[in-house]
TrEMBL record:
Belongs to the pyrroline-5-carboxylate reductase family. This is Unannotated protein. One of its GO terms (molecular function) is pyrroline-5-carboxylate reductase activity. HAMAP family: P5C_reductase. Keywords: NADP, Oxidoreductase. Pfam families: F420_oxidored (PF03807), P5CR_dimer (PF14748). One of its GO terms (biological process) is L-proline biosynthetic process. Residues 158-262 form the Pyrroline-5-carboxylate reductase dimerisation domain. Transmembrane segments: none annotated.
């Protein structure tokens, strides 16, 4: 390890922590300015090899810290980080409120809470942030400087974080289930596995890029691809008959309720 205080300490070298490390290094951050705290020695060695960052098996002081541990450990880790004199903490632990983390951190360390999603692994994530009552514009700007390395960042009040978690945080899982179901349906219609895989994977990639880059609403894009009495209309009719809109509403509501429960 280096004797210089790192610019950022990332606590947790799992998928999301690693994604953020990669995004930062690829985005121009000096690898030597980042220290990753990870208990697993094999993961530490991999992080050092892949990105050139410093690693540690204990929490160390830094100018700022990102907590990427399991929700049940986040409060204790936040207290550890604050005790070392770290000025700002960014937590991506699901369901743990900024107020709860701020209480554990005391009054000299400012806590920002974030909810990223797994497309951050390919630097196409979307992350919502909110802060404790102590946070100001500089704290939010700092959090954004870290998280824009892996995608888009939006600011929301904490009262909306459960909904954000349900829509964007859990959303990739919903889409992957639809992709899984479409693959099974393609095979059932007689398509070979390799052809079905290409069709479905590129379908999601292309439709996602189109949706993200178009000024038109999802409803308008749907209408443009739906000819009267055509094949798309026939398929959509089945989805409407199955109450797909109500299903998705219930899906998001269930996830939001679970997020709220986790924060209690």
């Amino acid at each position: 390890m280096t004797s210089q205080i790192p610019r950022l300490v990332i606590i947790g070298g799992g998928n999301m922590g690693t994604a953020i490390v990669g995004g930062l290094v690829n985005g121009g951050w000096a690898a030597a300015s980042i220290t990753v705290v990870e208990l697993d020695s094999a993961k530490r060695a991999q992080l050092e090899s892949d990105f050139g960052v410093q690693t540690s098996d204990v929490v160390v002081a830094g100018e700022g810290a990102l907590i990427a541990v399991k929700p049940g450990d986040a409060v204790a880790v936040c207290a550890q980080v604050a005790a070392l004199g770290t000025a700002r903490v960014l937590s991506i632990a699901a369901g743990i409120s900024a107020a709860t983390l701020q209480t554990s951190a005391g009054t000299t360390t400012h806590v920002v809470r974030a909810m990223p999603n797994t497309p951050a692994l390919v630097r196409e994530g979307v992350t919502a942030i909110c802060g404790s009552d102590l946070c100001g514009e500089e704290d939010f700007a700092w959090a954004e400087s870290v998280l824009t390395a892996v995608g888009v960042v939006v600011r929301v009040p904490e009262t909306q974080m459960d909904a954000v978690t349900a829509v964007a945080g859990s959303g990739p899982g919903y889409l992957f289930l639809i992709a899984e179901s479409m693959l099974a349906a393609a095979r059932a219609e007689g398509l070979p596995d390799d052809v079905a895989e290409v069709l479905v994977r590129q379908l999601f990639r292309g439709a996602g890029i189109l949706l993200a880059g178009s000024p038109e609403s999802p409803a308008t894009l749907r209408e443009r691809v739906t000819s009267p009495n055509g094949t798309t209309a026939a398929g959509l009719a089945v989805m409407e008959e199955a109450s797909i809109r109500e299903i998705m509403h219930n899906v998001v509501r269930a996830a939001a309720s679970r997020s709220a429960e986790m924060g209690k």
